[in-house]
Amino acid sequence: MRSPACLAAALLLLALRLPAPAVAGRPLVARDRKPAPSEAAATARWLAAQNTWGVLSTISSDLSGAPFGNVVSYSDGVPGESHGIPYFYLTTLDPTARDALEDERTSFTLSEFPLGTCGKVDPENPTCAKLTLTGKLKVVDHKSPEAALAKAALFSKHPEMEGWPKNHHFEIFKLEIENIFLIDWFGGPKPISPSQYLDYGRDQGSVMFL
Amino acid sequence: MRSPACLAAALLLLALRLPAPAVAGRPLVARDRKPAPSEAAATARWLAAQNTWGVLSTISSDLSGAPFGNVVSYSDGVPGESHGIPYFYLTTLDPTARDALEDERTSFTLSEFPLGTCGKVDPENPTCAKLTLTGKLKVVDHKSPEAALAKAALFSKHPEMEGWPKNHHFEIFKLEIENIFLIDWFGGPKPISPSQYLDYGRDQGSVMFL
């Protein structure tokens, strides 16, 4: 019989719509290279799983509502287990977190170029993939079970974060995705809904991008 | 005696406040590594000279005014001659150019991380430099002498651009810089004015980041 703690964890995963951790014998979507251009949701998830940093754009309160892009680290899961939701570790000493607390509208932008898989193709060439996730940047309650999962995701990919100054009051933020813009081939952006993106691989357990 | 064409070019450079191309015997600021954290304007110019792509953030007309970051290539001069003004080659088939034509407010964000000079330091660590230039994104008249200089800057660093489809109607855009946000060390953003940034190295001819 399962313990109450295990049941609680299972209910939490269900509530958060996160896939369960991979277990022995459970099917796993294992991808060892960039998905084909025809696989839009897979490509978007691959970009989110492979990168470790991107640009968060907010509506700047310091600059009278101008858009303001800032370089940030993120994680969408512990290595090998990607969930697609980007988590961030931000302090209000930085304008991005302050902006988001005033106006949640945010986009998060990733490029394939720094992964080294675009070869000699120009970073702006449509075959060198680009992903922009737009939505609302929200603080994750630091006492919540989701915060524990997000911390594991962040600290496993960014070990130095755990030692960042306590008096800077870093908080975990997440992007609640409302719109997805993916260019991974000629012919314009690929239509992907947030649920197509988040559900990718869910029916097969977890997604492991190698 | 100098030819009228040469005189016209000199007057143009003066009008655009661009440094003259380096000539034999003229002093040149040659930097072969990342400037020290105390040299804020030099660090910002080094980041702009060394990178070839970044994220342009606009106010999205498709997404009801949300900020929208997009991966783009750029150039601030032919290799070895950096002027600090980022030029872009954009088409209105892409939302970024359409957004800028409706609302010029834009920011352009660069990271040191993809240059490989941050070592094992996290991309969000303040010692791994980050630069955000905020201002107005403007079309450069394609018949103007500035467009010729911008094309030389862009096509020398992004050779494939010259062959991009004519029927996509690419235009040259420039960022008119109004605000500079640079993090290159602990202690918060460095105050740099647009003129401090643009004038860096001007009194010594040209800036060559090797």
Automatic annotation (TrEMBL), chains A, B:
GO CC field: cytoplasm
Domain CREG-like beta-barrel span(s) in chain numbering: 36-198
Keywords, alphabetical: Signal
Top-level taxonomic group: Eukaryota
Keyword Nucleotide-binding found: no
Signal peptide residue numbers: 1-24
Name recorded for this polypeptide: CREG-like beta-barrel domain-containing protein
Annotated source species: Triticum turgidum subsp. durum
